[in-house]
Each structure stands twice: as structure tokens, then as C-alpha cells.
Amino acid sequence: MNTANRLLGVLSLFTVEKPEWTVEDAAKEIGVSISTAYRYFRDLCKVGLLDPFPGGKYILGPAVIENDRKIRLTDPLIRVGRPVMQRLVARSGSVGVALLCRIYRNCVMCVHQEARNLPENSVGYERGRPMPMFRGASSKVIFANLPSRTARWFFDKYAEEIAAAGLGSDWETIKVNLRQIRKAGLHITRGEVDSGLVGIAAPVFGPDRIVIGSIAMTIPESEATPQFIANISALVQAAAREIDAGLQLMSSGEIAHDADHPAIYHELPSPENAGIAGVPKGS
């Protein structure tokens, strides 16, 4: 393992469950000498990724927050998706939370949320929290659109988790279920992540037409009548295609990466234009 991987390995030690580490404990965990671990900690402190803490411990440093801000301001998926999500929330009557998720390692991570009033930790898919590839609408709709070889790799590695998620216990059954999700163009789950919430998600594709994430709305079960779910489903699918188009324009250079998001994308359909009824208009 090279030095860069070792440094990344040090950073990955810092979790919500264990946010503080001593050099000695870290050295033992990643399998290096204490003197080498000290060098890693020193280098990470110099760039602000770690910070000393009383008692000979270290915590994540302010450079993590700086980089988080950079991502929120510059990531193409967030830049394109944010205004789309804001319109989605308004069109849905502001009764739920819009989630923008992307593939992260072997998981799915929410990178942005929008809501009329967004309380902290309002949904389990909170921003920055890795979630399983097979749990909830946001994840399953991504899994269903992965290349077949990639999906098969997940099956070989996570067969029990996939079965527990209700997608099947054998590869042939799983393929059928994933094909049905792909054909539908969206996926709906009830209470898989948060009790009392319904998730409605559609895949988001990059310029190369490879799935990179998903956009979803979570709505209270109390609002989830069949008609309302159908209405929100149409809006979520339209939002996904709008993000696809925006990413394509950005990739082709028609939108500058450092420019404000221009109003040149197709607007989300109004309830009237989309041929759907019963969606209250947002202000």
C-alpha cells in the first residue's frame, strides 16, 4: 500500500462512532510503526485535514468543511440538480423532502436535500451518510440501472443483503426484478429507510448514459394516496430527465462550470401540462 493510500486510510478511521484517535491507536489499526503514523498525522495536520485535541488525540480538521463547501458550490450534479429540486418541491406542494443521491464506493450517498422547511435529520438518507445499495428507493433505482456485470458483482458479494431487501435470492430472480424497475423508470418503497415515509425515486444518468445517481421525493404515508403517488412519480421522473439534460449541456460546454445555472432547461411539468391532477402548486 502506497503512502497516499495510507493517508486516506488514516482519514477513514475517523467515524461518527469513533471521532477521536491517538497516533498509537491509529498505528496499530492501519498496521504501521508509531513513527510512520506520527509522520502521517503531522502531514494531515499541516493541510488542516486533522486537528490536535486535548489528551494526545486528534479529530478531523477544518479542511474537511472547506472541501465540503467547495463540493456544494462546484459539483456538477449538485449545481444542476439544486434548482430542479427546488422546483420539484414547489410543484409537489412542499409536502416532502427532495433527495439527490449518487454512487459512493459500494454504497449510495445523499449529496443534497431540498424542502420547504428542512428540519435536521428529517430523513434517514441525510446528506453525507453512506447508505446500502439495496435499501430504499433512492438506492434500489440506482442498483437496477447498473451495468449487468456490476450488478452481478454486487450479487456475488452481497447476496444475503440483496435477498433481505426483497430483490430475490438467486441471480435469475434478481435480474427479473431489476429489469422491472428499469422498465418502470422509477421505484417506490414504503418505510424501508424511515417508518411512515414513502420514497419515490428515478435514476440520474451522466453524459455517457451510465447511471450516476438518483433523485427522489420522500412523502408522509398519510399523504400517499394512489393518485398523489402517481402525481409525484411523474414529477420525479421529469426532474431526473431535466438533470440528465443539464449534465449533458455542462459536459458539452454549453454551460460553464463556474456560471450560474441558467434557465434554459425544460421546466418541470405543471400538473396541467403533465396531465396529472391533484398536485397543489407551490408558491
Can you offer a commentary on this structure?
This protein has 283 residues and is α+β, with helices and mostly antiparallel strands. The protein has two domains: 3-65, Winged helix-like DNA-binding domain superfamily/Winged helix DNA-binding domain (Arc Repressor Mutant, subunit A), CATH 1.10.10; 75-252, GAF domain (Beta-Lactamase, 2-Layer Sandwich), CATH 3.30.450.40. The chain contains nine helices and nine strands. Strand 2 (50-53) and strand 3 form a beta hairpin. Helix 5 (76-91) packs antiparallel against helix 9 (226-252). The longest helix has 27 residues, at 226-252. Residues 258-283 have low confidence and may be disordered.
Key terms:
single chain, 283 residues, alpha+beta, Arc Repressor Mutant, subunit A, Beta-Lactamase, six-stranded antiparallel sheet, 9 strands, disordered C terminus
Question: Which H/E pattern describes the elements?
Answer: HEHHEEHHEEEHHHEEEH
Number of helical elements: 9
Shape label = globular
- Give the tally of β-strands: 9
Decide which structural class fits the backbone: alpha+beta
Helix share bin: 40-55%
The unreliable regions are 258-283
> How confident overall, as mean pLDDT?
88
Terminal residue distance: 54 Å
CATH superfamily of the largest domain: GAF domain
Please tell me the total number of domains: 2
CATH class of the largest domain: Alpha Beta
User: Biggest sheet, in brief?
Assistant: 6 strands, antiparallel
